[in-house]
């Protein structure tokens, strides 16, 4: 049995000093037990026990990156100029389509592997890859229809990160508008064809989820079929919604209702479902999210980069809607910065401090950690996100001696991390109990 | 003569490959010259020339931290809970006052030295220290009246950072309200006493500026006298204004005008003056800033932490108001993050991309660099902020091989830095031509 022995471990009861984290052969946490007895004597361990001390380190659950389009990493720093004279989300999309057209399995593999290594270095142990660049550039399937997805699976294996492939379904450009040239390689000819590829991926043993792109890209009958499949197979379902006003206007014009209302009508919302962004959700849509126990995935750095808006954080909290985080366009990879700016943009929106908290007297630290780890794990159907026996041993060691953390206390360490630090404090990362990264 | 030879140098003409940066004995840039002739031969150098190659590095001007209250570093992570049941800027202020009461010269020195080291590691080479904890806790001056300021000067010398002490003037709690108990150690009995301490500091050879705290804390006759001294002695003048609605309401009630209008009336605004925050400046106040050529210092991470609001970035740009940055409460020390979130919060406010740009076709990178370096140097009266002959050799070397920067091009490197990176890419820092930090 292997044991990790950091100075501190973050358990559901808070920071604990000198706890041993036992790791089993299946990549799970076998147990948490004290290193020392009350009298200071070392507790005896079983024969063959190996203890790895981690002096000056604090152990956290690994962060869960619920929403990523890994190929967009190639745009970092290169999509900050106007395209065709305008500067909105939609002009950024043109640069992104150009990059999508350039991809082939090898290029995708190389880019994904490097970016998944960057994610690990930042403290993300799991990524939900919202993958939509499926086919050849002219739209014809590859001889092996999941070749691009398999490149991602291989990249994740070689990088060492835990991957959930959220296979995107895409049918058209908008309500009543066929797919554009640049979208051909995203699209399947039918929902049956799409679900066939989902089944083929699952048959490879991959962790898979369903990802109808958005209400603009996917017709109602597809949405219903995909949602039914999600419920029957108990697989996560992820969908973009309410990120930009134009999407909402389009949906209202075509269907007479807003995107989340349409999703409720198609029985897409539910405890297996995550809505990405929900930036412009109105009161009725918020109530639908809450009553259906749907999760919302926030992408603060990408939402800032695209100027989407500051979502209704206060309403999310008040209505008990679980929140998770994602790096989305991968312009930044740092869960500490994502969570910090979720809270900061919330403060800027409401002109008050302490929006994302789990109780009247609490600081944001513990709630931000839940968003970064536990809620994310649930949104991807992964048994991680908490340091508890039975959970996956996906772990992050933080350097308590880093100058950024100088002045930390056990009472406030999470706040020091989220408000004072960057991913620079990450020292080592384990996935399924195996150390996959060390600084 | 010493020469630095990085792969790239950022000059006012953009990135240049294989340029030598010559450093003279006075801590200034003596010249910039090519390493190689057109035929590839190495240009001969004078006798005794020492060349330090910096392979894989890009050299930038050092970032200028225009606004810092260094002692507030002690609050990092510790001021995220409610105080007296409420959660606003004003409840944070209570935690800050408690910390201010605890300070003595030794504690201040220790905290300042460590925090100035953190600033250097983040790429800041100059700091404008807005210093107001002057006297003993009961308000009596120390036997040596500038003892606390001298602790800061020593801390900066020992850390290696360039320091401009912005000596704060403080007289009262609000219009018609005497100083609170906790403010006693901030206050001088008269503006003459305050200016006497300014003169004494200058006599020590320190770089000094004037810093009337705010319109609430400083009466009009003081403001006029301090502004006159600033103009006569050509020293920078910094003042907080328009950070929170309550300040504006108080000023309107007492004076019938808004803070920047009052400052204009007292002849405080001008090319030597920097207004810190200006978050809630209205159209008339913006016009006053623009016509007087006053600079504005933004503090995005602290403004986020305190929920101040998103300032009118678009108006700043449209009216040609120069912008600089400051770490303020020192909850975060990272010029890349400050500049990124200045632009991102601007995008969130306006729902558009590319707000902080210097031209119709430009990306934000060059303008953000100017905010981070050149405008900041001007705001502090320091001849730095640009890599040009004659300017101070305050420099930062960036690691071009860092995974965060993978994919960079010379055309877009600044965008890759500001949108994709953190201070983790800083490899070495020079102040006055001397290497003061290496990672």
Number of strands of chain A: 18
Quaternary assembly: homodimer
In percent terms, what proportion of residues of chain A is strand? 15-25%
CATH topology description of the largest domain in chain A: TIM Barrel
Question: Could you say what the CATH architecture of the largest domain in chain A is?
Answer: Alpha-Beta Barrel
CATH class category label of the largest domain in chain A: Alpha Beta
Largest sheet of chain A: 8 strands, mixed
Quickly count the helices of chain A: 14
The named CATH superfamily of the largest domain in chain A:
Metal-dependent hydrolases
Low-confidence stretches of chain A: none
Euclidean distance between termini CA atoms of chain A:
25 Å
Q: How much helical structure, as a percent, in the residues of chain A?
A: 25-40%
Overall residue-averaged pLDDT value of chain A: 96
List the helices and strands and how they pair.
The structure is a homodimer of 439-residue chains.
Chain A: E1 2-11, E2 14-17, E3 19-23, E4 29-34, E5 50-61, E6 63-68, H1 89-102, H2 105-122, E7 124-131, H3 147-159, E8 162-169, E9 172-174, E10 177-178, H4 191-203, E11 208-212, H5 220-233, E12 237-241, H6 245-255, H7 259-265, E13 273-277, H8 283-292, E14 295-298, H9 300-305, H10 313-318, E15 323-325, H11 335-350, H12 364-372, H13 374-379, E16 395-399, H14 413-420, E17 426-431, E18 434-438
Parallel strand pairs in A: 1-5, 6-7, 7-8, 8-11, 12-13, 13-14, 14-15
Antiparallel strand pairs in A: 1-2, 1-3, 3-4, 5-16, 9-10, 16-17, 17-18
């Amino acid at each position: 049995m292997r044991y990790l022995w950091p100075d501190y471990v973050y358990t559901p009861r808070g920071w604990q000093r000198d706890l041993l984290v036992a790791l089993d052969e299946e990549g799970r946490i076998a147990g948490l037990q004290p290193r020392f007895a009350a009298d200071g004597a070392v507790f005896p361990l079983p024969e063959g026990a190996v203890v790895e001390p981690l002096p000056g380190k604090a152990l956290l659950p690994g962060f869960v990156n619920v929403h990523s389009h890994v190929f967009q990493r190639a745009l970092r720093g290169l999509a900050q100029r106007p395209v065709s004279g305008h500067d909105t989300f939609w002009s950024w999309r043109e640069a992104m389509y150009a990059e999508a057209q350039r991809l082939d399995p090898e290029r995708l593999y190389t880019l994904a592997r490097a970016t998944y290594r960057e994610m690990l270095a930042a403290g993300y142990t799991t990524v939900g890859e919202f993958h939509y660049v499926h086919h050849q550039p002219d739209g014809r399937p590859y001889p092996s229809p999941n070749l691009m997805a398999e490149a991602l699976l291989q990249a994740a294996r070689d990088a060492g990160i835990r991957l959930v492939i959220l296979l995107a379904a895409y049918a058209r450009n908008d309500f009543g508008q066929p797919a554009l040239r640049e979208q051909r390689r995203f699209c399947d000819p039918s929902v049956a064809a799409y679900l066939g590829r989902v089944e083929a991926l699952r048959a490879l043993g991959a962790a898979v989820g369903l990802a109808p792109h958005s209400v603009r890209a996917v017709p109602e009958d597809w949405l219903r079929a995909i949602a039914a499949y999600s419920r029957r197979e108990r697989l996560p379902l992820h969908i973009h919604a309410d990120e930009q006003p134009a999407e909402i206007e389009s949906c209202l014009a075509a269907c007479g209702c807003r995107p989340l209302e349409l999703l409720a009508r198609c029985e897409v919302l539910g405890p297996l479902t995550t809505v990405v962004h929900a930036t412009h959700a109105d009161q009725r849509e918020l109530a639908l999210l809450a009553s259906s126990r749907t999760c919302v995935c926030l992408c603060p750095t990408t939402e800032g980069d695209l100027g989407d808006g500051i979502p209704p954080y206060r309403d999310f909290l008040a209505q008990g809607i679980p929140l998770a985080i994602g790096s989305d366009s991968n312009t930044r990879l740092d869960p500490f910065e994502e969570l910090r700016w979720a809270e900061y943009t919330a403060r800027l929106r409401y002109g008050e401090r302490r929006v994302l908290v789990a109780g009247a007297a609490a600081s944001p630290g513990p709630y931000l950690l839940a968003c970064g780890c536990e809620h994310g794990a649930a949104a991807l159907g992964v048994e991680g996100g908490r340091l508890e026996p039975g959970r996956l041993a996906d772990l992050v060691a933080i350097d308590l001696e880093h100058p950024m953390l100088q002045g930390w206390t056990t009472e406030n360490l999470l706040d020091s991390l989220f408000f004072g630090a960057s991913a620079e404090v990450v020292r080592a990362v384990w996935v399924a109990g195996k150390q996959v990264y060390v600084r």
